[in-house]
């Protein structure tokens, strides 16, 4: 059919320059799945979690997840609490620790929540960390106090 003639390239190359980044990305995703399993999530739960909140895939383990987990462990949130946070409000693992989480923890300290109780408060009610400090948390506390 094309014997002796040059056939034009149509741009369907899967050259090594395209395969390597794909493999690197797959390795990153595998690391995220394994990291989530460390909190006691089953493979099925990880799948449901990533299907429900696919933005977790875009959040860096090193930049977002590990600093948050370290901070939450410091506050007294244990493995079961971490699993609960992931299942109830996974978006917490994508927010900025210093701008979003730490001010709410300081607020809890300021209103007299004992340091040893902060972790259990967070683990029992993960949505607290997603609420606006000035639009929701402070007005509600002011109303009741």
UniProtKB/TrEMBL annotation:
Molecular functions per Gene Ontology: nucleic acid binding
SMART domains in alphabetical order: Mterf
Matches recorded under InterPro entries: MTERF, MTERF_sf
Any one of the GO BP annotations: DNA-templated transcription termination
Coiled coil ranges: none
Entry keywords, A to Z: Transcription, Transcription regulation, Transcription termination, Transit peptide
Keyword Transit peptide: yes
Family: Belongs to the mTERF family.
Name of the protein in question: Mitochondrial transcription termination factor family protein
Organism from which the protein derives: Dendrobium nobile (Orchid)
């Amino acid at each position: 059919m094309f014997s002796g003639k040059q056939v034009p390239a149509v741009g369907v190359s899967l050259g090594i320059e395209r395969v390597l980044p794909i493999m690197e990305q797959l390795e990153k995703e595998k690391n995220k799945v394994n990291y989530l399993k460390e909190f006691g999530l089953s493979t099925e739960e990880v799948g449901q979690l990533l299907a429900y909140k696919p933005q977790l895939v875009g959040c860096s383990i090193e930049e977002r997840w590990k600093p948050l987990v370290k901070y939450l462990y410091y506050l007294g949130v244990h493995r079961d609490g971490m699993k609960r946070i992931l299942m109830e409000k996974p978006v917490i693992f994508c927010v900025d620790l210093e701008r979003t989480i730490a001010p709410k923890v300081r607020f809890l300290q300021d209103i007299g929540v004992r340091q040893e109780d902060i972790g259990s408060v967070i683990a029992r009610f993960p949505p607290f960390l997603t609420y606006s400090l000035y639009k929701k948390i402070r007005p509600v506390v002011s109303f009741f106090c």
